[in-house]
Specification:
With 305 residues, the chain is of the alpha/beta class. Helices cover 39% and strands 16% of the residues. The strands form four sheets. A seven-stranded parallel β-sheet has the order 3-2-1-4-5-7-11, with helices on both faces. A two-stranded parallel sheet has the order 6-13. Strands 8-10 form a two-stranded parallel sheet.
């Protein structure tokens, strides 16, 4: 009998690709989304769609749960109201999810819950592993509380993993989609000094890592889901320009970004030289460990899915 998986955030940039990969492996999927069922099935494939987690209260249970729900952190300027939306869409949903799971007849074997390398805050040029102490700022507190909301299930004997994901590159959406037009017009350039690290990762490797965490009975705790070859913003800019065959002569000065974006400018002007130490130790195989081939795949004609 195929295993049953509950996924939150299944229609998102990562989630819809994850759903299709899991379906190809003969898993049975239930997707929580506030979008209409027809939209969910169009994006994700042959899945059961639910619009309210409370529908699953006192459910017989699922074998695994993958929790990727969350508003896009860079979609809007960070007002106090927006910060609360980001917290509610991550922490609030996770708290509800845990409460519902605890009502099931049978607990899942594993919960893989979303997080981000923003957990560490700004780390400058220091190498960041899963053991690195965080810098206390908004992204750290957001990710810390998001992870803490899922941790009670570990007390119930559920294996809990956290996917501390980097900046995700993939075709057909995400941050790269927003960058392409100015770069294609020859108007791209580094952000600020360009020395800040961008802990990038290809979407296919995020999907692979999430499935690996779910299927590996020895995996638990946080995993940095980032390329083993981190790049500075200047290096990323040069690589994208090279792949697009366009110059990258128009830097965005830090003061301009701070005026335009406020506190959210820290997402662009600071970063982490994060490495996937635990995944590397477990011999996880990245499909796109190097930046230029990853970017080339993202912009190749017909690569969107």
């Amino acid at each position: 009998m195929s295993k049953r998986i509950l996924i939150t955030g299944g229609t998102g940039f990562i989630g819809h690709v994850l759903c299709r990969e899991l379906l190809a492996r003969d898993y049975e999927l239930t997707v929580f989304s506030r979008q209409p069922a027809e939209t969910v099935k169009s994006n994700c494939g042959r899945v059961e769609a639910i619009r309210d987690l409370q529908q699953l209260r006192s459910h017989p249970g699922f074998d695994a749960v993958i929790n990727l729900a969350g508003e896009g952190i860079a979609d809007k300027r960070w007002s106090e109201a927006r910060k609360q939306e980001l917290r509610d869409s991550r922490i609030g949903v996770t708290e509800t999810l845990v409460e519902v799971i605890r009502s099931w007849e049978q607990a899942p074997d594993v919960l893989v819950s979303g997080s981000a390398v923003g957990f560490y805050g700004d780390q400058g040029a220091a190498t960041v592993t899963e053991e690195t102490s965080p810098n206390d700022e908004f992204t750290h507190r957001l990710c810390r509380d998001w992870e803490n909301a899922a941790k009670p299930l570990a007390d119930d004997g559920v294996r809990v993993c956290f996917s501390r994901t980097g900046v995700v590159a993939g075709p057909g959406g995400g941050f790269l989609e927003r960058m392409l037009l100015p770069f294609k017009l020859g108007l791209g350039g580094r952000l600020g000094s360009g020395t800040q690290y961008m802990p990038w990762v290809h979407r296919d490797d995020v999907v692979g890592a999430v499935i690996w965490m779910m299927e590996n009975p020895d995996a638990s705790g946080p995993f940095n889901v980032v390329s083993p070859n981190p790049a500075t913003n200047a290096e990323f800019t040069r690589s994208l320009g090279k792949v697009l065959r366009r110059p990258t002569l128009f830097p965005a000065p830090a003061p301009v970004l701070k005026v335009a974006l406020g506190e959210m400018a820290r997402l662009l002007l600071t970063g982490q030289k994060a490495i996937p130490e635990k995944l590397t130790r477990e011999n996880f195989e990245f499909r796109y460990p190097d930046l230029e081939p990853a970017l080339a795949q993202c912009i190749a004609p017909g690569s969107s899915r």
